[in-house]
């Protein structure tokens, strides 16, 4: 049973997971290389309020920080961070987001936006490709 949880990524999923694990009584550390959580999704004042709320809940925020490595130890997992810091945790969750792999679709001449564009039938811009 993991008591100490490290969440890598301060986006929507990472922030939600931090709240959920905190509510479940876990010691939560959230690390992100941005200066604020939800930096690319929210205005700074909204991000600031959410950071304050997470901190009040007991989440330890490590912003402008990067995970350098993970090593299994007898008592958990040693997470090595930048600036010669490290923390020991029981579980690590990567919530760093997803990027669609669109290279093949692009080479096939399909319409690409944030991924491959499809209609309500999942048909691409090529009528023979679903």
UniProtKB/TrEMBL annotation:
Needed co-factor(s): FAD
InterPro entries in the record: FAD-bd_OxRdtase, FAD/NAD-bd_sf, FAD/NAD-binding_dom
Alphabetic keyword roster: FAD, Flavoprotein
Gene3D superfamilies: FAD/NAD(P)-binding domain (3.50.50.60)
Domain FAD/NAD(P)-binding, first and last residues per copy: 3-130
Molecular function via GO: oxidoreductase activity
Presence of the UniProt keyword Flavoprotein in the record: yes
SUPFAM superfamilies (alphabetical): FAD/NAD(P)-binding domain (SSF51905)
UniProt name for this protein: FAD-dependent oxidoreductase
Lineage: Bacteria, Pseudomonadati, Pseudomonadota, Gammaproteobacteria, Enterobacterales
């Amino acid at each position: 049973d993991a008591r100490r949880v490290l969440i890598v990524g301060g986006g929507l999923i990472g922030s939600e997971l931090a709240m959920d694990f905190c509510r479940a009584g876990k010691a939560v550390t959230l690390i992100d290389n941005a200066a604020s959580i939800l930096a690319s999704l929210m205005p700074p004042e909204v991000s600031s309020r959410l950071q304050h709320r997470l901190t009040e809940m007991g989440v330890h925020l490590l912003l402008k920080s990067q995970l350098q490595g993970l090593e299994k130890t007898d008592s958990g997992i040693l997470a090595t961070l930048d600036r010669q810091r490290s923390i020991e945790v029981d579980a690590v969750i990567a919530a760093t987001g997803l990027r669609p792999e669109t290279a093949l679709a692009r080479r096939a001449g399909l319409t690409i936006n944030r991924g491959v564009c499809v209609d309500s039938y999942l048909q691409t811009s090529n009528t023979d490709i679903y």
